[in-house]
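anyone seen this seq b4? input:
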Amino acid sequence: MYELLFWRYLDEIYLNNQEVYEALLEKEEVEGLAILQVEVIVNRINSVFSDWERVDENSWKNPKGKGAFQVITTPQSIKIDCYGTEGKTMNKLVDIMEEFKCPLYDPQVPERYDEMNE
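predicted toks r here
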C-alpha cells in the first residue's frame, strides 16, 4: 500500500507536517487547517475515475488493469490508500487535490509538496 495525504493550511499558518499527519491519522482536529469540501472532492474523484469500478462509497478499482484505491476522509483531510496503483494514477489523484489547493504530503518520504518546500 502507498499512502497519499492531503490537507490545506489556513492563510499565514504552517505547522510541522509530520505532526499534522499523525494527528489526522488519529482523526483529531488540527487547529490551523481548513475545513474541506469533502463531498465535492469525492464527487470530483469519482467523475475523473468514472471508467473505474466503484467498489463501495470510498473505494475504486481498475477494471482494465492493476490498481485500486480507497479514500478516507476527515473534515480537514483526504487520505488515499493506493494498492498496486500505477504512478500516473497517483499523479492524477494529486492533480485533483491540487484543484482544491490541497498539496500532497507523502508520509513514505516524508515530504509535503507545496510552495514552502519548493
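The longest helix spans residues 87-99. Residues 27 and 56 are 21 Å apart (CA to CA). kinda curious what u guys think
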